[in-house]
């Protein structure tokens, strides 16, 4: 156990261009000026931290890397302090490269099509309203802790066929993996272990009594040769669906409400024109993209003219790409009726987020139902907004006052 | 003759973002995996030209062509 390193505090960043760190408190609080500085310096920057890591800073450089599976592997998808051994079925298909990626991805796609999501929509509306019922009379609420958090958890629990009442368990595992796990290997291993045990119990129960949910769906799935998936593949994909389905959309809904709390004009427009909400959701996804992925350089190449060497990680910041003014006019402004919006919030290339249709539906429903019942709200000056660190960015504390300001 | 438009989805580029289906449901269809193809032979009925261009300009994979005939 001696080589499992203890978490080490990172020194504060003083030179962003040559020493960036996406876990630095300054990045967590307000990453946008940092990305502008990095982009102005070079399309690709590098840090010695995380055992060596590049970051593409332009939309074009991000697209090049996302589409290049020959030089960039997905076997590691989180930039961390350590690089432990790779396990084969970590979380397919997000951790898979071609040629094994495609069949693993195709297995997961049918349950997440837009039509499949429409069937889930009434349950989502009911969940949103039950959550609002719980706090609307109080006149104030932490919307991250009591609203945006529970919408995606309950949706994915519903799809997987696991109890919605286990929500806090899932949220804790995800915090341990995506935030604490960047610097603390033991924390990550413990969460993965507990999560795997949890799913093994649910898989066992379904062997004698199959159910109509995603766990049974994966247990019954066959590969191209007609063989059932290995148990480790089923477990890996279940871990992926739980991890990827929760604090991503939690963050996206939270950031959207944060924006609307601070921007009465946008709020009023969406209340007057609810048909604009899907367009606004795309713009909020662009401006406040929650998810930063990673790749590992496995073969030397150049990206946007910059040499990139094997052995380094790549911080694949879709959020920074989406703020590139060369791609998006007024990139630093939220334009809720933006007509042309090729944002990369769900990734680009073969690893496009499997749950993008689910996330979009959840965001639209969450904002619609909130605005119907709470047309007026604002940040509570007595509280503090806090943001998650690292791989997924969104508000974790979002204190609002509800109702018209007096 | 007024110009006629046709849309085409490059199946090798499409990754199933489904933006085209959301913006121009009359012009695109999704398969069982959620990947898009043009409806019928891709001919854009009169009045839907704007939607064709909108779908093209919102495809993150640049997989959609609008062809002027």
TrEMBL record, chain A:
Pfam families listed in its UniProt record: p450 (PF00067)
Cofactor(s) essential for the protein: heme
GO molecular function: heme binding; iron ion binding; monooxygenase activity; oxidoreductase activity, acting on paired donors, with incorporation or reduction of molecular oxygen
Annotated keywords: Heme, Iron, Metal-binding, Monooxygenase, Oxidoreductase
Annotated region (Disordered), positions in chain: 1-22
Record bears the keyword Iron: yes
Family: Belongs to the cytochrome P450 family.
Biological role stated in the UniProt entry: Cytochromes P450 are a group of heme-thiolate monooxygenases. They oxidize a variety of structurally unrelated compounds, including steroids, fatty acids, and xenobiotics.
Protein name per its UniProtKB record: Cytochrome P450
Organism: Bradyrhizobium huanghuaihaiense
From TrEMBL, chain B:
A GO molecular-function annotation: iron-sulfur cluster binding
Keyword vocabulary terms for this entry: Electron transport, Iron, Iron-sulfur, Metal-binding, Transport
TM helices/strands, residue ranges: none
This protein's record includes keyword Amino-acid biosynthesis: no
InterPro entries recorded: Fe-S_cluster_ET (IPR051269)
PANTHER family in the record: FERREDOXIN (PTHR36923)
Name used for this protein in its record: Ferredoxin
């Amino acid at each position: 156990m001696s080589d499992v390193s203890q978490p080490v505090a990172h020194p504060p960043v003083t030179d962003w261009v040559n020493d960036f760190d996406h876990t630095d408190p300054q990045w967590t609080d307000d990453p946008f000026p940092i990305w502008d500085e990095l982009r102005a310096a070079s399309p690709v920057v590098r840090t010695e931290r995380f055992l060596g890591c590049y970051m593409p800073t332009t939309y074009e450089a991000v697209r090049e890397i996302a589409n290049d599976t020959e030089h960039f592997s997905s076997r590691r998808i989180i930039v961390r302090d350590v690089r432990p051994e790779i396990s084969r079925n970590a979380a397919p298909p997000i951790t898979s490269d071609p040629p094994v990626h495609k069949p693993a991805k195709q297995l997961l796609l049918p349950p997440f099509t837009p039509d499949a999501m429409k069937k889930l929509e009434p349950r989502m509306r009911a969940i949103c309203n039950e959550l609002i019922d719980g706090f609307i009379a109080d006149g104030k609420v932490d919307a991250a802790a009591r609203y945006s958090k529970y919408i995606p958890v309950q949706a994915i629990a519903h799809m997987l066929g696991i109890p919605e009442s286990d929500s806090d368990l899932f949220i804790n595992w995800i915090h341990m993996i995506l935030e604490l796990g960047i610097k603390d290997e033991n924390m990550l291993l413990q969460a993965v272990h507990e999560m795997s045990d949890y799913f093994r119990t649910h898989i066992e129960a379904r062997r004698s009594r199959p159910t109509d949910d995603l766990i049974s769906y994966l247990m019954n799935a066959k590969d191209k040769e007609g063989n059932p998936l290995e148990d480790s593949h089923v477990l890996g994909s279940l871990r992926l669906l739980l991890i990827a389905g929760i604090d991503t959309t939690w963050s996206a809904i939270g950031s959207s409400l944060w924006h609307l709390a601070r921007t009465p004009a946008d709020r009023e427009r969406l209340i007057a024109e609810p048909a604009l909400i899907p367009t606004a959701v795309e713009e909020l996804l662009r401006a406040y993209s929650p998810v930063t992925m990673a790749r590992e350089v496995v073969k030397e190449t150049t990206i946007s003219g910059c040499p990139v060497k094997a052995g380094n990680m790549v911080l694949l910041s879709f959020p920074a790409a989406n703020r590139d003014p060369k791609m998006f006019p007024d990139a630093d402004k939220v334009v809720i009726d933006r007509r042309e919006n090729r944002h990369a919030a769900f990734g680009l290339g073969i690893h496009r987020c499997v749950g993008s249709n689910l996330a979009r539906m959840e965001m639209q429903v969450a904002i619609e139902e909130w605005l119907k019942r709470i047309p007026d709200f604002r940040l509570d000056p007595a509280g503090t907004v806090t943001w998650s660190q690292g791989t997924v960015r969104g508000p974790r504390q979002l204190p609002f006052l509800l109702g018209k300001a007096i | 003759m007024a110009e006629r438009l046709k849309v085409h989805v490059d199946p090798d580029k499409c990754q199933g973002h489904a933006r085209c289906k959301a913006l121009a449901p009359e012009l695109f269809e999704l398969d069982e995996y959620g990947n898009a193809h043009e409806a019928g032979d891709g001919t854009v009925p009169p009045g839907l030209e704007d939607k064709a261009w909108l779908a093209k300009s919102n495809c993150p994979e640049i997989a959609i062509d609008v062809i002027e005939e």
